[in-house]
Amino acid sequence: MRLGVLISGSGTNLQAIIDACAAGEIDAEVTVVISDKEAAYGLERARKAGIDAVWLDRSRFEQPSLFTAAILETLLAHGVDLVVMAGYMRLLGRAVLAAYPDRVVNLHPALLPSFPGANAISDAFEFGVKVTGVTVHFASELFDDGPIIAQEPVRIGEADTLDTLEAKIHEVEHRLYPQALAAIAAGHVEIGEDRVVHIAPRA
What we know:
By secondary structure, this protein is α/β, with parallel strands linked by helices. Helices cover 35% and strands 24% of the residues. The protein has one domain (2-199): 3-Layer(aba) Sandwich (Rossmann fold), CATH 3.40.50.170. The longest helix has 24 residues, at 162-185. The protein is globular and about 50 Å long.
């Protein structure tokens, strides 16, 4: 399976995916990494791994639909089978979702539907919940929406700070996301008519 990864930042989850593919834990390869930010360190991670790294400057496109079209053109040019959002901080355009139905995956640092949005970790911490977590889900036209593939809880202890909670969340992300992608690549993930994800047990 050929993966196209969308990023906006440092790319730590991208690195976890690259490493898992290289170790044979995911039966897939990352064929292109696309960023909407030129300074995103994830682009350098891609280059170091010998993966095509593409920066698409949003300011050069007069309309959001043209920017989306450029993303789609890049994905198709690299023969991408599955689109993976790994810290991509924008809503993905309709054209990409239409071209890849139920083949766009996103990672969110909370237990959806709780705490959607860009500040999920701090929102959960400041709200005072005792359990938050990580969600992997198929993307839709709405932020942090779509059928849930996998979730894992993360407990917030009395001694936790926002920094220690973020570290806990990232640790789970770097493990759960590759596991979910491995299940998809192996053909073990299906979406039922009820739009609920079903995962076949490992043989």
